[in-house]
Amino acid sequence: MMNTTTLISRKSLADEVAEKIQQQIAFGTYKVNQKLPIEPELMSSFGVGRSTIREAIKILSNSGLLRVQQGVGTFVENSTAIKEPLSQRLKRADFEDLNEVRHLLEMKVAEKAALNRTKADLVKIYEWLKKRDKAAKNDLLEECIDADIQFHISIAEASGNEILIDLYKSVAIHMRNWFLEVYKDTRPFKETSQQHKQLVKSIEAGDAKKAWNNSAKIIGHISQ
User: Fold this and answer.
1) Confidence band (pLDDT; 50, 70, 90) for 78?
2) In what residue span(s) does the HTH gntR-type domain sit (predicted)?
3) Are 71 and 96 part of one and the same domain?
C-alpha cells in the first residue's frame, strides 16, 4: 500500500504582515497614494525584522496593492485590489443593503427549494414554522426571531445549492440584532403566518414559480 503525505501550507511571517497591512488599508488606516510608515516604524509595529517587512512589501507590490518609489517611500497604489472576506464585509454593511440582499436570496432559495427539497428538508421546514408560530402566539419575540431565521435557513438548505446556502446563512446571521431593534413585538410575525404556510405548501408541491411569488408577497408585506 502506497504511503501518501498531506502537505499543510504554513504562512510565513511576511505573509502574516502582508495580511495585516492589507487589513489596515481595507479599514481606511492608509488610503490610496498615502505613504506607509518607514521600515523601522513598521518593524516596531509588527514586531518583526527588516527582511520580513521588505518581503511583505514585495508581496503587496506584486499584487498591485502598493508601489515602491526608490528613495521616496512605499505608497498605497490600489485599494480595490483588496479581497476582503465576505464575513468581514457583512459586519460593516448598512442594514438596509443587507436586508435587500436577504430578500433577493429568499426568493431564489424558495424557488430552488421547490425544485430540490427532500422529505427530510420538508420535515425541518415545518418544524421551524411550527416553532415560529408558537413563539409568535406566546409573544416571545426573541424566540420568534430565531425561529423565523432558522425557518428561512432551512429553506435555503433545501435549495441544494451550497453557495446559496452559505450566502444566505452569512447574511441571516447579521440580521438578528437588527430584527431585535426593528420589531418591538411579534405582531408582524403573526400577520405573515398564513403567508409562510402558503410558501411551504408551494415548496412541498414543487411549484417553483409559486414559491418565488409567495416569498415576494411575504417581503412585500413586511416592507410596508
Assistant:
1) confident
2) 11-79
3) no
Cell output for 113 = 427549494
* DSSP for residue 79: G
**Are 159 and 51 members of one domain?**
no
C-alpha cell, 145: 426571531
Residues 157 and 190 in one domain: yes
Q: pLDDT tens digit string along 113-157?
A: 999 999 999 999 999 999 999 999 999 999 999 999 999 999 999
Phi-psi sector, 169: left (phi>0), alpha (psi -120 to 50), beta: alpha
Residues 6+ apart with CB under 8 A from 126: 200
pTM of the full structure: 0.63
In this structure, what are the phi and psi dihedrals at residue 75, rounded to the nearest 5 degrees? Answer: -125, 155
Q: Which domain holds residue 169?
A: 87-222
pLDDT digits (tens, 9 = 90+) for 172-204: 888 888 888 889 999 999 999 999 999 999 999
**C-alpha span between 191 and 185 (Å, rounded):** 12
Predicted pLDDT at 6: 41
Q: 96-121 burial by CB neighbour count: b if 16+ within 10 A, else e?
A: eebbebbbebbbbbbbbbbeebeeeb
Q: Give me the number of domains the chain comprises.
A: 2
Pair (109, 62) in one structural domain: no
Same domain, 153 and 205: yes
